[in-house]
Write a structure and sequence with these properties.
Length: 300
């Protein structure tokens, strides 16, 4: 019994809790909700709705705000010091946000290389968040502004054949169209380069064959036939896919090369520093001594 309550009042409360059917029903609902794995919907936004907060953030920053960006602002506790680690309001919030990051990276990896550096559109961000947050609960999506969701509820609740279930069919169709167009541009560029290379090789081989034919004076001189040229060009053409694959790894190769160059520069700096020290040491000892000879051999 609480210390601030009179015994007779406490007895009345116990009787009410054990006999009142309405209270018992509400208690059972609350018990089920507390035991649910879906958890609550805690946030740090106070009494301001997510829609209002989103509008204020967009007005303050002068640009559209992605759902995940606003979600992190309203579900991470404010740090009391710069060295304090990031603290989420509840485990469910961190799990949902981490899932969004993972799904976004997976989706980005399916795009053509030239489109991977571009930021997601507002529609893409919303569909990625809907997949990360899961199915609606009582008509609402976790972390999604309620009014914005209600406007799109009709299409979100419908079925979709896309891998992003529950997304806007038109939006997903536009996303797929964007991917196809980018892929077609890349393929056209690759095909054009391959045709140019093939034409150049044929012309080069034909020119070389003509020079060899005109310069050969002996009866037994060798001559390359047209069939051999075509066969050689076909073999060279087989290497083009491997070249394209290596080009796709250009970014990682460039990074490795840059790291190697930085390491070599660091070694050069250390060697120069060591040479300066040896010069200083050489000026302090007898130039005819064996030590001076050793130092001169190292410097030279």
């Amino acid at each position: 019994m609480p210390t601030f309550m009179l015994p007779d009042r406490w007895t009345l409360l116990l009787k009410h809790w054990s006999t009142d059917e309405t209270f018992k029903k509400r208690s059972e609902i609350g018990k089920m909700a507390r035991a649910s794995e879906k958890g609550g919907s805690l946030h740090t936004g106070g009494a301001i709705s997510q829609v209002t907060r989103k509008e204020r953030m967009e007005k303050e920053l002068g640009r559209p705000i992605a759902v995940a960006e606003m979600f992190k602002v309203t579900h991470v506790k404010k740090s009391t010091s710069p060295t304090e680690e990031e603290r989420w309001i509840e485990p469910r919030a961190q799990e949902t946000y981490d899932r969004y990051i993972r799904i976004s990276q997976e989706y980005c990896s399916t795009l053509p290389l030239e489109s991977q550096d571009k930021p997601f559109t507002q529609e893409e961000n919303e569909n990625l968040w809907k997949q990360s947050a899961g199915e609606p609960i009582r008509g609402s999506i976790y972390g999604y502004p309620e009014k914005a969701y209600q406007k799109k509820k009709s299409w979100y609740c419908g079925s979709s054949s896309s891998s992003f279930d529950g997304g806007d069919k038109e939006t997903i169709s536009a996303m797929e169209k964007r991917k196809d167009e980018a892929r077609e541009r890349v393929e056209r560029g690759v095909s054009s380069k391959q045709n140019k290379k093939k034409t150049f090789i044929i012309l080069n081989m034909s020119s070389r064959r003509s020079r060899q034919s005109s310069s050969s004076s002996s009866p037994g001189s060798s001559r390359i036939s047209d069939d051999q040229i075509i066969e050689l060009v076909s073999k060279l053409h087989q290497f083009l896919p491997e070249i394209q694959t290596r080009r796709s790894n250009k970014a990682s190769a460039t990074k490795v090369l840059q790291e190697t160059c930085n390491y070599i520069r660091s070694l050069n700096r250390e060697v120069n520093d060591l040479s300066d020290r040896l010069f200083q040491l050489l000026s302090t000892i007898d130039t005819e001594s064996p030590e001076a000879a050793i130092i001169r051999s190292l410097i030279m």
